[in-house]
């Protein structure tokens, strides 16, 4: 009887299943975990061979104000591994005296000092000014995008002479993929900008794995150009969150090249659906809301009406009862009704767009949560089923599905992206 492992924070959750009940296992790429030297080499290579943009040595000038944007605690990007190479390139160009870091947190909570140090590294935190972006703070208005989105951007970013962004390419249910222009919108944008941008989320091309033709992504990219983002550095991470590869350069061109490389590693051809799906949220697993991103990769591997077992540590905790019950109320709405509330302003689109994606999923599938951070009562307040252990959840779901039912497993749902066969 096979034993299947699913990543769970720094550990694993395991279950046994009869060979006859297991349909497919997706998501473990055939890659070796890189050494620290190989990680650094990938970043340096990307910086010295930028795609569609000049290298830092040509962009930077002595005396310039340079701002480096890094993503926040909800993203797995090891910015502390990328920053040293970026800072070295700036220093070689004579631009090292007026460099600061902005944490591009959008509307997420502020990072604590310990979290900032974990993200950027002790050395960078000790010698550079590091600030959390404030979505309702000191902003500059850059005009409207062609889709009517008012572009309000962090003043430090807007008024800098040089803007460099560090993030990661990862599957994303609204923007298609993380990385690229998302560091600007929502990263360092105003709340009004984020709301309007995310209100575009009911287009059929707003889906996981779709960048070109996705109006949310394209609106982000237009505003990133308005904000004059000079260079992006986007990593592609291993399952252990090490740097497998990196791209640098133009906010669109480099990002698309990165997507090509990402899909070769994490693309999954799903040819047949099962009655039960088991999906691990790693590495986007700090909260339940972010853990749900893994669901969208798993949808094609489960028949409508089936059960999806979401394995997520939710390391940031279960939140408040009010927050859980609000999430359940929105998730149980018809998707069209929820989008109407978002567009009217009754529901904030910065979170509502994800509630909208989730509501489309739970209208067709039954979700069961396996998480040590949630009690049964707290899971029920979210409106999901509860699995005391992963083994119990799998056994119960298969028994409920009936004789002959099968399960498919996607251990790395937070990274995997479905791709067309062939």
How far is it from the N-terminal to the C-terminal residue, by CA? 31 Å
The spatial strand order of the largest sheet comes to 3-19-15-16-17-18
**What is the count of DSSP helices, taking H or I runs of 4+ residues?**
16
CATH topology description of the largest domain: Rossmann fold
Count of separate structural domains: 2
Report the helical percentage: 25-40%
CATH superfamily of the largest domain: LarA, N-terminal domain
Can you count the beta strands?
A: 20
Rounded to the nearest angstrom, the radius of gyration is: 21 Å
How large is the share of residues in beta strands?
Answer: 15-25%
Task: Please describe what this structure looks like.
It is a single chain. The model has no long low-confidence stretch (mean pLDDT 94). The chain is globular and about 70 Å long. It has 16 helices and 20 strands. It has helices spanning 36-48, 56-59, 79-92, 113-120, 122-127, 155-158, 191-198, 215-226, 253-266, 288-291, 293-298, 321-331, 335-344, 349-362, 376-382, 390-401, and strands spanning 3-8, 11-16, 22-25, 66-71, 99-104, 129-132, 139-144, 150-154, 162-168, 171-172, 176-177, 231-237, 243-249, 267-269, 274-280, 302-311, 366-370, 385-386, 407-410, 417-419. A hairpin with a 3-residue loop joins strand 10 (171-172) and strand 11. The protein is of the alpha/beta class and 422 residues long. Helix 12 (321-331) crosses helix 15 and helix 13 (335-344) packs antiparallel against helix 14 (349-362). It folds into 2 domains: 3-26 and 270-419, 2-enoyl-CoA Hydratase, Chain A, domain 1; 36-264, 3-Layer(aba) Sandwich (Rossmann fold), CATH 3.40.50.11440. It has a 6-stranded parallel beta sheet with strand order 3-19-15-16-17-18. A 6-stranded mixed beta sheet has the order 6-5-4-9-12-13, with helices on both faces.
